[in-house]
Prior knowledge:
It is a single chain. By secondary structure, the chain is mostly beta strands. It has one domain. The protein is built from no helices and 13 strands. The strands form three sheets. The chain has a six-stranded mixed β-sheet, with no helix packed on it. It is elongated, with a radius of gyration of 18 Å.
Amino acid sequence: MSLLQLLLGTTTPVGALSVTITGSITSVWVPSSGPLVLSSAGTYYLTPNETFSISAKLWGAGGGVSGQGGAGGFAGGTITLFAGVTYTVIVGGAGQHTGEGAGGGGFSGLFETTSLTQANARMIAGAGGGGMAPAGYGLAGAGGGTNGQDGVGNNGGGGFGGSQSAGGAPGNSSNGTAGSALQGGSSGNALNAGGSPGNGGPGSTGGWGGGGGGGGYFGGGGGQSTVVIGKGSGGGGSGYLHPTLVTAGVLTAGNNTTPGNSADPDRGTSGNSATAGRVALALS
């Protein structure tokens, strides 16, 4: 019997693998021909005690404001999972939106253990930055990819995308904040929640409100939010693949409202701006 064919519920067998799913379970997709179907959020314990590999495809969530927020990036590859180790799967939440500036989307990711740190990250798909309403002020940056896309705005006010080494800088104003490790930056007067889980940065509902940065390995910067200078959309968060534990890895950045690897049939309709992320898992 395959390791993934025996689902034992909430009692931990000795030496078993456990996988914790966090986020909207409806966004976790398993092929119909695959052996494991998850019907609710929670922690699943699987036996027997053996090591196996899975093929994983992750799309980060989109930032708020449909048609203006940045779409999620893509991360994919094959990874070996080990019995006796806990893994956490994050399905990024969409950025929230009321008023003008929206929250950035949350990253989707696979982590070893339940401690969500960069050191424990194995795969991350960056999320899109939060957009601005009404339409016409420029699109938010999409998630990465190795680098998140920059947002746009008035007078250079869009937040910058996260990279492999640093969070994206905020827009051309001191009232936004930079992205940081696993966290999107906020706009000024941040009120619209960023995507959760996945640490999207909050946006501003006020007049001339800017968008929050998307979550990622390093989050995107928040857009500026000022009446005098103008407003800006959020930058996208970066993606990540562990350099030795992931094989045949691919990172593909989105482009504004188009997700990374958008033609993949496993993506479905999730991952566009203002939508939750998506995770596809199957035996490799």
